[in-house]
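Inverse folding, one chain.
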């Protein structure tokens, strides 16, 4: 059965262009021109992925993203946000609200398709590692998609969860941003994105214990401190 994608975009030219390219790749695409109807459509259709423009009438894309992440039924839905804004802060806010990645207009339809494919591939096989990990106050159960810190369950998005798995799996080792983009998002190393940095920040905020445990290696990447040193 073809994967279903919901596109929430008020620019009809972009809607036609994106729909054309995604349909050529075998995806089923449905679209909505405003945020309120788009949110309703996503909840009704239960798609495999959503693409949201940030600047939407009725309800902007940031609010749509926030509501999707707050609903257990859509909390792990892969989300890509589209933005014509040049300010970095708008893109970062989208990621902080739970989007998996962003694409800035004008964009290459082929690049968007590549990112969609990567996110869908990762959502089908989110984690293939050991069933559980322990690190200090943290316990992570892969099969149950559950993370606890000091016994309290922590709500993570699918990408935050996969990123934490990679850090736990490779504790003590420095992981480049390119490596994390490949293993967690499935992107080629030449893709430029601040997705990794934002997701690391979110992990530190959601699990304060990690604020010092995750070390930033300037101009290179990140590592999780070895528990023995």
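Residues assigned per position:
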């Amino acid at each position: 059965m073809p994967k279903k994608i919901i596109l929430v975009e008020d620019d009809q030219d972009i809607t036609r262009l994106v729909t054309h390219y995604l349909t050529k790749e075998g995806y089923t695409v449905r679209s909505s021109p405003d945020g309120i109807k788009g949110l309703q459509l996503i909840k009704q259709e239960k798609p495999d992925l959503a693409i949201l423009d940030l600047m939407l009438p009725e309800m902007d894309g940031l609010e749509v993203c926030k509501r999707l992440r707050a609903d257990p039924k859509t909390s792990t839905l892969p989300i890509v946000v589209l933005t014509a804004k040049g300010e970095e802060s708008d893109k970062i806010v989208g990621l902080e609200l739970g989007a998996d990645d962003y694409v800035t207009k004008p964009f290459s339809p082929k690049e968007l398709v590549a990112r969609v494919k990567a996110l869908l591939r990762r959502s089908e096989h989110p984690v293939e590692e050991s069933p559980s990990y322990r690190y200090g106050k943290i316990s992570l159960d892969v099969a149950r998609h559950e993370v606890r810190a000091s016994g309290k369950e922590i709500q993570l998005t699918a990408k935050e969860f996969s990123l934490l798995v990679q850090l736990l799996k490779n504790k003590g080792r420095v992981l480049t941003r390119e490596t994390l983009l490949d293993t967690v998002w499935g992107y080629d190393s030449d893709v430029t994105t601040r997705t990794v940095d934002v997701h690391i920040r979110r992990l530190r905020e959601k699990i304060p214990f990690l604020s010092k445990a995750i070390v930033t290696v300037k101009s290179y990447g990140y590592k999780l401190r070895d528990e023995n040193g």
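The mean pLDDT is 86. DSSP finds nine helices and twelve strands in the chain.
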